[in-house]
């Protein structure tokens, strides 16, 4: 609406300025109103896109991050992603299905000594050697980082923690809870467990690969994608309120017809980030 108002006043000011049919007083008023609207529009746009905090910026440029992590930054845009999630010092964070710990390490750096990160590993993943290797790397790293705990349990138990959380994070794995890779899991029960794990006002963030609208249910297994609308429906059914969506990882050029590991699109998939809140 601000954008539309701005266009109207631009037209009005131009007519006044060039038609020579208005007094200087009216010209001044028109210009002042236009300036105000432009300022409000810019303010609205700035507030819609969260800016990375100093703690997030420092975590991303930390020289101790392994090259296997930093090489992925171009595609994962960690500063913008963590800023949208609202990660901050002192947070208690769950990194669900943490993999090799890419986000675990970033979260730990931002959360600091007063925060804590739980790198949660569903026990169903132990059958995959590459995942076991990544888990071992996270465990080794956590030994020297006391604000990190690596936990193992079944899919639903892995979403339970010894303290209430500020943030529950799941990246590129929500769809796997629907398929044979990590499930199928009772998603209503899973999201209720996440709800219970969070503090009132806590944040639930789901990052995943976009599936085409109207995709069949098995798209989670065949292409490893999921429709954002499916996630919203399931998460909101558990009592969460929708806070917003980030397009920072969007790729309009993705045809959504190839699996996420297909060389034609791997690392460049169209991805969504949805943010939900547990009501206070």
What's the average pLDDT? 85
- Major sheet description: 7 strands, mixed
Could you say which overall geometry the principal axes of the C-alpha atoms support? Answer: globular
Q: Secondary-structure element sequence?
A: HHHHHHEHEHEEHEHHEE
Q: What does the radius of gyration come to?
A: 23 Å
CATH superfamily grouping of the largest domain: Vaccinia Virus protein VP39
Cα distance, first to last residue?
Answer: 30 Å
Number of domains: 2
How do the strands of the widest beta sheet line up side by side?
3-2-1-4-5-7-6
Uncertain regions spanning at least 5 consecutive residues: 1-23, 25-49
Question: Number of DSSP helices?
Answer: 11
What is the helix fraction of residues, given as a range?
40-55%
Assembly state? single chain
CATH class of the largest domain: Alpha Beta
Beta-strand content estimate: 15-25%
Give the helix/strand class.
alpha/beta
The CATH topology annotation of the largest domain reads as Rossmann fold
In CATH, the architecture of the largest domain is 3-Layer(aba) Sandwich
Signal peptide: 1-48
Keywords: Methyltransferase, Signal, Transferase
Protein name: Class I SAM-dependent methyltransferase
Organism: Dokdonella soli
């Amino acid at each position: 609406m601000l954008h539309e108002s701005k266009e109207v006043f631009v037209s009005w000011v131009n007519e006044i300025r060039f038609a020579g049919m208005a007094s200087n007083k009216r010209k001044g008023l028109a210009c002042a109103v236009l300036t105000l609207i432009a300022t409000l529009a810019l303010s609205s746009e700035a507030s819609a896109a969260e800016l990375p905090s100093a703690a997030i910026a420092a975590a991303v440029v930390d020289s101790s991050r392994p090259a296997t992590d930093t090489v992925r930054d171009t595609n994962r845009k960690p500063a913008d992603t963590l800023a949208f999630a609202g990660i901050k010092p002192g947070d208690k964070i769950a990194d669900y299905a943490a993999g090799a710990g890419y986000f675990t390490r970033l979260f730990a750096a931002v959360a600091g000594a007063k925060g804590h990160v739980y790198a949660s590993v569903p026990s169903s993943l132990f059958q995959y050697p590459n995942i076991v290797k990544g888990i071992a790397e996270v465990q080794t790293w956590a030994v020297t980082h006391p604000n990190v705990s690596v936990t193992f349990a079944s899919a639903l138990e892995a979403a339970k923690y010894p303290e209430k959380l500020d943030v529950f994070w799941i990246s590129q794995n929500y769809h796997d809870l629907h398929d044979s890779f990590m499930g199928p899991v009772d998603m209503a029960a899973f999201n209720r467990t996440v709800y219970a794990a969070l503090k009132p006002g806590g944040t639930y963030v789901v990052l995943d690969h976009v599936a085409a609208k109207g995709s069949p249910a098995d798209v989670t297994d065949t292409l490893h994608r999921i429709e954002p609308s499916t996630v919203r429906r399931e998460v909101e059914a558990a009592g969460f309120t929708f806070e917003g969506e980030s397009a920072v990882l969007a790729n309009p050029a993705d045809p959504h017809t190839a699996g996420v590991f297909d060389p034609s699109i791997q690392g460049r998939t169209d991805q969504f980030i949805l943010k939900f809140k547990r009501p206070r």
